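User: I'm putting together notes for a lab meeting next week and I want to include a structural view of one of the chains we've been expressing. I don't have a solved structure, so I'd like a prediction I can at least talk through. The sequence is below, exactly as it appears in our construct file.
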Amino acid sequence: MLTMEKQNYLTNLSEFEGMSLRAISKRSGHHFNTVKIYVDKEDWNKEYSPRKQRPSPLDPLKPTIDEWPMEDMKRGRKEVNKFQHKRALALTARKFVRLVFRLLKDNRLYIPA
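Assistant: Thanks for the context. Below is the predicted structure for the 113-residue chain, given as structure tokens.
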């Protein structure tokens, strides 16, 4: 994108001095296609066209998705785990040994009745 000053300079070289596009591109140092765009352009206001409405890929699934929150509201509350992720629930060998040692030390080992 060229500044307005450069755009006017390229246009003036073409209109008032009658230079060809190739001569303007050599003189200004800009590419031929750039010179052509700015010399040929008459209306500088950018035209915006409204976007075409495309169907969403989720349109067929929307009724099902809308039913999910309603089904969840009908169900009871879910039980929340003490730990939110599975890694915290894993009992490693080291943790297990510590747990058994602590229970033996405190004399609290579980004995079935």
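A couple of points you could mention at the meeting. The first helix runs from residue 4 to 15. The chain is about 50% helix and 0% strand.

User: Perfect, that's what I needed.
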